[in-house]
Amino acid sequence: MPADSDKQRILLIEDDKAIRDYLFSSLTSAGYRLTEANSGQQALESAERNPPDLVILDLGLPDIDGQDVLRKLREWLKAPIIILSARNQEAQKVTALDHGADDYLTKPFTPGELLARIRVALRHRETAAEAESPIFEVDRLKVDRAARRVFVRDKEVHLTPIEYGLLNILIRNAGKVSTHRQLLTEVWGAEQAQETHYLRVFMAGLRRKIEDDSAQPRYLLTEQGIGYRFAAE
Questions:
Q1: How many CA within 13 A on the CB side of residue 207?
Q2: Are 105 and 146 in a shared domain?
């Protein structure tokens, strides 16, 4: 068993003591170190004092709205942030993801599902670091980012500048949802941030070029109503 100093540290931001107690047992049993905060201000001070490896954030905090806490953390913190909230409206999820959340889990939830999301988020952080290297390679897909060339089964495929731009953003964020707004803003500019039909057209073309079956994609996954995700595994 690893020493406490070697365990990954999770900052749990939750004002409900019953939920904190419930998660403390599950997360520590799974080998994580847990730091708890019951308010937004306490959380921000704790994160600055001792930056965590991952954050679990409830949006309904007593002093600062969780969306504001998320924005403040994302100004400097690169660790994954998982939202754990009773707010299940699609607009809330999109806003949180636009503000930099890595995942969104709606209450009620099971500890097993949360632990799975934690493992994926931590793997994504490692995958994202690898994706910054000049060569990104997974299975039969290879992207030479320095040369802006894409290969499928060692055969080069031609992508348009927009298709390549979309693919590059998605692999840079492999395992994490990129919202429609994020993709449109980065590729087309802020003035086109609502034109989701652009995305559908170009994503369909990109899938035809790099997927074996564009109707059942292996890499470029749709997050219904939210955006797209490059499969990290």
A1: 19
A2: no
